[in-house]
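Sanity check

After download, print the first record. It should look like this:
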Amino acid sequence: MRLRFSTDHVRNSIITTEQGQVLYKVVTPFRPFFMKGTSTLWKIIPNTPPLISKTRTDKSNIELEPDEEDLDGSNVTPVAEGSHVIQSNGNEEEEDIILDMRDQFAQLAQIEFHKFQTSRIRWFGLNNLGQGEVSTKEFIPSRGITRRSRIFTGPDYRIYRWHLGMRVCKLYLESEPNDPVAQYHRYSTGLLPGKRPRCGFLDINLSKSNQGYCDENTDTNNYTDHELEHNLDRDMISPELLDTIIVTFIYVEKLRREREQAGKKDMRWNY
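Expected structure tokens:
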């Protein structure tokens, strides 16, 4: 699986598939380097609850319920573009259900970066990842003398390790320390002869055996986004694990770039 970032600044970026389908967006407002910064991660989810449901008997006249604040009917709620109208086949009464099928963003997580205290990750309850706040010292602690490794336990109960390299971050399974399961490839300007400009992208290569519960017998009714899961190829990675990888990558890439920019005396990434 390859996920593309719209900008090289991954903490202010739109994340899409190779086909161009938007999956996530990351928003980080500007802050001076001495203040804490907060990155908010949003995820695309389907918008399927019915907006209007009205039972009628006259098939020749389809009416929508007016807004409560406008009882004279002059402010009628229109059918949203891309919505669907479902009509029942009853003989006596017919029910019109208007569904807004357009996808929408929902908050997945928030990362609060601190300079002199441990940073914090705030989860908003999507995909059974729980809801609440946890310190990065507990959720993804550092390892090694140089503190270039960050360990976390995935929703599949496997232990993963992000390695913060000089130029890119790589993700490993602790059980397979020599083969990266995810790696970021940086933005390229394409200025060199024979090279083309490209966006940065995150390659994720997890085999089926590493998915645990994500197999042919999985009950898809328990998933949040059926259409999204289909487009991502459900045999590759579970939505919960993908969400965790994205959130942890945003965090560790910030740490890695701080080290890189510190050597260049550049403060651009300190927000």
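If your output differs, re-run the checksum step. Summary of this record's structure: Helices lie at 136-139, 226-231, 239-264.
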